[in-house]
Amino acid sequence: MVMSVNMAHLGESAEGLRLLDLAEPFTDPADRGILLHQRAFNLWQSSRLNDAVHWFEEAEPHLAANGPDYMYAALFHNRAMVWRDLGELHKAMESIQQALQVYERVDIPVNRAKAIHLEALIWLDLGDVTKALLTFDDVRDQFRQYAPDLESFVDFSYAQALFYAGMYRQAADRWAEVVAAQRLAGNRRSAAISEFWRAVAALQVNRFELVEPWARQAMDSLYEQGNEPMAFLARLLILQGRFDSGQTGPDFAEKVAALCDALEQRGWTLRLEEAKILAARAKIKAKTFDGVEELLNGESGGSGYDALAEDLARYLAKAELAIARGRDPMPELRAGLDLLDDYRTTFGSVEFQAGVSALGVQLAAKGLGRVYELRKPPVESVVLQRISIGGFCVEPIRA
């Protein structure tokens, strides 16, 4: 089982699972919970998330009965991370709070601090930025005491919280500090990821002259380290920055489509739909409509902010397609603004969610443009009501 743990940490999860199969017939019944937990962990590292949840559940009664307690706490801790990856945020919160209860009787302060850090991240995912920031402040002191080398990870998360609160410039400044600290510590992988998010923050405030150099620096470093999936996300960010700044060129749509194909061929679905929507918008802008409907036929996976942002972008693209083809875009615009309103009602203010407000502004702006064009009172009433509810600050329409 020890070798299986090592294989998982080296990224060889399939080999780790094979070793567990070999070990199972010789495992003492009292240690069965440890073996099942390790199987779940390896499945999680293999991105087989639902299988991982199943084996965590299988391991739970064994570890509850036989321990050890540190492994029992780790089960809830790891399961919380899997639930979070699946977008099941309330289940993730329940699991991490169970972990914290067990950590109360386990003298491993570093692991307890990591659990508190994860709890803060889940609060952030749920939109409670204030609680997340307060928790980050608390856990930073614990890391400083027990694991100083992990303090920069809390600062990274603090920057994320500032980002979700719409404080993009402050977030970029904090990420710059994190990049410097991680480079000084020789942690090139984490520094590259922080550099990527610094570029995302620059995109939110239309600092296009900074987006590409920061994203490209992150992309080159990630490629050098063999982190190709994250490097592809940096490439997508570069393309998004070019699109938003109007620097597309005649072959831009083909470049985005090629990125979509590469993501699909490799099975990297994390941002595949986002890339397809960008490809569709690029085709619409270039007035080459072949294949656009297929690109916009996808459905968001998961829940929470990422799914909402993806759905809003899809509605915006469909509205742009309708306008380009001389059709009425109002059904798509209304549906997008209604979705945003429903999300607010259910989950709280999405001003704390990066990118969503910007997408809402674009939907509202197109709606106002349509109102100005048609000058129809019923249409005007619906759109203005949705914009009023959303509280969007939209540039005035000029003749």
Topology diagram in text:
Layout: H1 2-9, H2 13-23, H3 32-45, H4 49-66, H5 69-85, H6 89-103, H7 109-125, H8 129-146, H9 151-164, H10 168-184, H11 188-204, H12 208-224, H13 228-244, H14 252-266, H15 272-285, H16 292-295, H17 305-324, H18 330-347, H19 356-374, H20 377-390
Helix pairs in contact: 1-2, 2-3, 3-4, 3-5, 4-5, 5-6, 5-7, 6-7, 7-8, 8-9, 9-10, 10-11, 11-12, 11-13, 12-13, 13-14, 14-15, 15-17, 17-18, 17-19, 18-19, 18-20, 19-20
The parts where pLDDT drops under 50 for at least 5 residues are 348-355, 374-399
* N-to-C SSE string, H for helix and E for strand: HHHHHHHHHHHHHHHHHHHH
Summed up, the helix count is 20
**Radius of gyration (Å):** 23 Å
Question: Mind describing the biggest β-sheet?
Answer: none
> β content, as a range?
under 5%
Query: Class by helix and strand content?
Result: mainly alpha
Query: Shape, please?
Result: globular
How helical, in percent, are the residues? over 70%
The overall average pLDDT, rounded, is 80
The number of E-state strands comes to: 0
Terminus-to-terminus distance: 72 Å
InterPro entries: TPR-like_helical_dom_sf, TPR_rpt
Describe the structure.
It is globular and about 70 Å long. It is mainly alpha-helical. The chain is built from 20 helices and no strands.
Keywords, separated by commas or semicolons:
399 residues; mainly alpha; 20 helices; 0% strand; globular; disordered C terminus
